[in-house]
């Protein structure tokens, strides 16, 4: 009788002990005044139109923690304190990031982290209609260093989790191969008799 009570409790507690860890991110933004201070703190400033917005999943391994990232494709018109090509992909790495809209132009701050341009959730983002508004504050800035087309990289991004479908497909395929093997083996034994 005691075994029936303790066994489920033991199994549940082992599941919690063995389950993968979840990373937690905390957000504490410091208010930064002045344009030069913002560029030093949050990276270079980029002005351009958002062409495309896509979500993607970053996951280490098959069962590692999942992080949902939103990527924006920006057609760059001007930049300050950073040299970029005519189109860039910027990661907004947290769920509390700025709500970008396709077709609108923004002034955003981006840093190069591990080979990827990232807009910090604390980094200032401002919707701006005209480049003239920025030139008065920041100066002329840099034009894009070269013309590129980055839209093809956005095609591979998806916020859907296909791991379960892939695993299910592999299991079904293994089951079908096993059934085929045993049917063929049974048929060969019947022919031998």
Summary?
By secondary structure, the protein is of the alpha+beta class. The protein is 35% helix and 27% strand.
Task: Give the helices and strands as they follow along the chain.
Answer: HHEEEEEEHHH
Q: Residue-averaged pLDDT, rounded? A: 77
Largest sheet: 5 strands, mixed, barrel
Q: Which value, in Å, is the CA radius of gyration?
A: 26 Å
Structural class: alpha+beta
Across the major sheet, the strand order is 1-2-3-5-4
Name the CATH architecture of the largest domain. Beta Barrel
What would you call the shape? elongated
Counted up, domains total 2
Question: Helix tally?
Answer: 5
Q: Give the termini separation.
A: 53 Å
The count of β-strands is 6
Signal peptide: 1-20
Transmembrane segments: 164-182
Organism: Paenibacillus sp. SYP-B3998
InterPro entries: TIMP-like_OB-fold
Task: Provide an overview of this structure.
It is built from 5 helices and 6 strands; from the N terminus they run H-H-E-E-E-E-E-E-H-H-H. The chain has 2 domains: 31-159, OB fold (Dihydrolipoamide Acetyltransferase, E2P) (Beta Barrel); 161-192. The protein has helices at 2-18, 35-42, 131-138, 151-155, 163-192; strands at 44-59, 66-80, 87-92, 105-113, 116-118, 125-127. The protein is elongated and about 90 Å long. With 193 residues, the protein is of the alpha+beta class. Strands 1-2-3-5-4 form a 5-stranded mixed barrel.
